[in-house]
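re: that chain from earlier
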Amino acid sequence: MTYDCQSCGACCFGLDVLLSDAEAARFERTPALAPLAALEHCAPGLMLRFMRKDPETERCLALEGKLGAWRCTIYGERPTLCRDLAPGAPDCLTARRVQGREG
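^ sequence. v structure.
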C-alpha cells in the first residue's frame, strides 16, 4: 500500500517535534523559521525547543491547506524528525489511526 502525505497530513497533528540544538539555533537565526519554534520548560532547569502547534487543532503551524491538499511551508527546512518519518512507517501508521485516516 502507498500513502499520499498530501492527502493525509496526520503526522503534522498532535505530535511533538523536538528540534535538535543545531536545528533550534538555525530556527532562531532564520526570520521565517523563528516563529515556528517554541521554547518549553520540560523539567526544572530543562528547556527544549519544539515545533509550534496551533493550540486549537494541535496542527503544526508549518502545515497549511486542508485534507486532500496539505502543504508543509518549510518542507526544505523541516526538522530531522519530520524528514525521518517515512510514509507507511510505524509512527506514520499510528498518526493515521489517531487521526482516523486508516487505510
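The two ends are 9 Å apart (CA to CA).
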